[in-house]
Design a protein that fits this description.
By secondary structure, this protein is an alpha/beta fold. The protein has two domains: about 10-40 and about 285-385, Aspartate Aminotransferase, domain 1; about 45-280, Aspartate Aminotransferase, domain 2, CATH 3.40.640.10. Helix content is about 40%, strand content about 15%. It has 13 helices and 13 strands. The chain has helices at about 15-30, 45-55, 70-85, 100-110, 125-135, 150-160, 180-195, 230-235, 250-260, 270-280, 285-305, 330-345, 375-385, and strands spanning about 30, 95, 115-120, 135-140, 165-170, 195-200, 225-230, 245, 310, 320-325, 345, 350, 365-370. The chain has a seven-stranded mixed β-sheet, with helices on both faces. β3 (about 115-120), α5 and β4 form a beta-alpha-beta unit. The radius of gyration is 20 Å and the shape is globular. The relative contact order is 0.17. Bound molecules: glutamine. Glutamine (GLN) binds near residues 36 and 173.
Length: about 400
């Protein structure tokens, strides 16, 4: 067998950096500020709803292919309550195995071999994999320090006759950039003028700090060309449950469901009932969570700055980007590889997300700050030993 085992489209994808770094954290007993997951679970009443669902026999057998009706109704209710958007829970909402599956199913459904897909670079790693699986060609709109804002004139100039899809993410992982209303409207105008489809990964929609999250779906003319994606893992702090959703017109949902049914078919039955209950939480749940994370962001930003990192303060997500160049370091991958042994802390080299312009991210590192304040303080203490 001369051929490599892994199909050529996936060549070089290897193991996701999140899994690699979490394994390093466990092996070295380090504080894990790498993979983005909170160290405090979501609301106990939601956890109890999951346990109750299992014991009551709700969702222990295959749920419906599109998700349990209670959760589809709850997602539709959330879109209405938060954004004034009306979706039919039966035809326009699809429950998935996390936002990750929703993105994969949408890309595989909408992209033909040879199609070009424009996405923000640094890319969340699964986008690169999904575009490759579909046989598409990724086209980077590179976000650069210090503010990581997209150059929308450049976006328009990247569009060719082969461009099929904009795969967007705001609040953006890893940079924490949040598209403004004006940028969102301009992107909508570009998508409409060039007749493009759009997928928006809005996993961090509620994690913004003093800026608003403006769903692209709220802009006139977008509904027929847009798949919007959300995440219970990120919104309710149950990342292991892997419950996500897509909202779109019936045609688009039907296309995404076609691929989704052959990926997992369905998943997480009892968790779907629990997440439906989570959507009953009052508005204060969301505002408290954002306020709590904002304080943690400020703690990390100040602490990292004091140590000597360059700090790019995020407007959203629970990630902060730091530049190691001021510390005399040149290679984020090498820095993160050795950081567990040097300091007992794990971080993610953002450089790995700059697949097409590695120089732009060579010295950028991502720290997750969705951890208890004492854990963040301990991590900062350990990091300060690096410069002592
Ligand atoms: N979204 C999480 C992050 O960016 C990781 C999820 C995963 O490991 N696939 O850290």
């Amino acid at each position: 067998m001369n051929r490599p085992l892994l199909n050529r489209r996936l060549d070089g994808l290897g193991n996701t950096i999140f899994g690699v770094m979490s394994a390093r954290a466990v092996a070295t007993n380090s504080i894990n500020l790498g993979q983005g997951f909170p160290d405090v679970d979501g609301p106990p009443l939601v956890a109890k709803a999951a346990a109750d669902a299992v014991l009551a026999g709700q969702g222990n057998q295959y749920p419906p292919a599109t998700g349990v009706p209670e959760l589809r109704q709850a997602v539709a209710g959330h879109q209405r309550r938060c954004y004034g958007l009306d979706y039919d829970p039966d035809a326009e909402v699809l429950i998935t195995a996390g936002a990750t599956e929703a993105i994969a199913a949408a890309v595989l459904a909408l992209v033909e071999p040879g199609d070009e897909v424009i996405a923000f670079e640094p890319y969340y790693d699964s986008y690169v994999a999904n575009i490759a699986m579909a046989g598409g060609t990724r086209v980077p709109l590179t976000l650069k320090a210090p503010d990581f804002r997209p150059d929308l004139a450049r976006l328009e100039s990247l569009i060719t006759g082969k461009t099929r899809l904009l795969l967007l993410n705001s609040p953006h992982n890893p940079t924490g950039m949040v598209l403004t209303r004006a940028e969102t409207e301009q992107i909508a105008r570009i998508a409409i003028d060039h007749d493009l489809l759009v997928i928006t990964d809005e996993a961090y929609e509620h994690l913004t700090f003093d800026v608003e999250h403006v769903p692209l779906a709220t802009v006139d003319g977008m509904r027929g060309r847009l798949v919007s994606i959300g995440s219970a893992g990120k919104t309710f702090s149950f990342t292991g449950w892997k419950v996500g959703w897509a909202t779109a017109t019936p045609d688009l949902i039907s296309a995404v469901r076609t691929t989704k049914q052959f990926l997992t078919y369905v998943s997480g039955g009892p968790f779907q009932y629990a997440v439906a209950r989570a959507f009953d939480l009052p508005d204060s749940y969301y505002t408290d969570m954002a306020a709590d994370l904002k304080a943690k962001r400020d703690l990390m930003a100040a602490g990292l700055r004091e140590i000597g990192f360059g700090v790019y303060q995020p407007d959203g997500t629970y990630f902060i980007t730091a530049d190691i160049a001021p510390l005399g370091e040149r290679d984020a991958m090498e820095f993160c590889r050795t950081l567990p042994d040097r300091a007992g802390v794990v971080a993610i080299p953002s450089s790995v997300f700059y697949d097409d312009h590695p120089d732009e991210g060579a010295t950028l590192v991502r720290f997750a700050f969705c951890k208890r304040p004492e854990v963040l303080k301990e991590a900062l203490g350990r990091l300060s030993a690096l410069v002592r």
